[in-house]
Amino acid sequence: MYATLLALHLLGLVMGLGGAIGSRMTGDFGRENPNLKVFPLAQKFARLNAWGLVVLLVTGVWLTLKLQPDMTLLTFQIKLALVVLLVGLSGVIHMNLARFKRSGDSGLLAKNRPIQLVAMVTTVAIVGFATVTFY
């Protein structure tokens, strides 16, 4: 059971980070080449990212219940705080994408660039703190 949960958790990580990178790359390409209309592809990557985050959250809670880690560990508390930050950043990114879809204002996509970078760095930090906490 643990191996299956861990595999699903890692799948969520791959989906989330892959979707984030794909969305960023297609968004950048779309801004540079607006006549190609690649925004639908960027949306699909963003959706993959969102589903990856959902898989991570569900399996993360499940793994926490199964493993019952020491909640007083500072590394675990930092990891949880970073997860909350990541969920918030993801929400802002998806809100900007939805607003862009309605208005067509490419400035909203430009706002996502620094947020996406912070979200990717946060994801790597979460993996680091999870590794230190659990292994």
Summarize the helices and strands and which ones pair or pack.
Blueprint: H1 2-32, H2 39-67, H3 74-103, H4 106-134
Helix pairs in contact: 1-2, 1-4, 2-3, 3-4
Brief sketch in words of this structure:
This protein is mainly α. The protein is 88% helix and 0% strand. It has helices at 2-32, 39-67, 74-103, 106-134.
Describe what this molecule looks like in 3D.
With 135 residues, the protein is mainly α. It has 4 helices and no strands. 88% of the residues lie in helices and 0% in strands. α3 (74-103) runs antiparallel to α4 (106-134). The two termini are 18 Å apart.
Helix fraction, binned, reads over 70%
**Shape field:** elongated
Number of strands: 0
Give the termini separation: 18 Å
Indicate the proportion of strand residues: under 5%
Q: What order do the helices and strands follow? A: HHHH
What keyword list fits this structure?
mainly alpha
